[in-house]
Amino acid sequence: MIRPFLMLAAFFGLTGVALGAFAAHGLRQRLGADYLAVFQTGVQYQLIHALALIGVALLALHAPSRLLTAAGMLFALGVLLFSGSLYLLTLTGISKLGIITPIGGSAFLAGWVCLMLAAWTLRV
Questions:
Q1: Which sequence spans correspond to the domains of the chain?
Q2: How far, in Å, CA of 30 to CA of 20, rounded?
């Protein structure tokens, strides 16, 4: 799972930077300050978890485990659900999409728990 995690990290990093620039330059006139802040929150969490995926992939290179695989998958799921729902909510105005956001946040939390457990069981 190292290559897929690195590819996802690169994709999330690339699109996170692009979406951040899009928000700063293209959405500033279109969205209110509240929605712009929501969009930027999605970008921030996406970029943080792109870096986390790189860390998971590098750690898995040296000490592969099912917990690390789970952490990476949960981080990727979190980006899709958390950040993705925030992007869609701000761009479409469909407030019901906010129901998905906490599921993505829970995926992030579960990913960090898996990473913590993987570190705990690491034999160094």
A1: 2-121
A2: 15
Check if the beta carbon of residue 78 is closer than 8 Å to that of residue 105.
Answer: yes
pLDDT band at 1, cuts 50/70/90? confident
Q: Say how many C-beta atoms besides its own lie within 10 A of residue 61's C-beta.
A: 12
| 98-103: average pLDDT | 96
Q: How far apart are CA 112 and CA 78, in angstroms?
A: 11
Rounded CA separation 97/74 (Å): 20
Q: What is the pLDDT of residues 41-91, one digit of tens each?
A: 999 999 999 999 999 999 999 999 999 999 999 999 999 999 999 999 999
pTM given for the model = 0.95
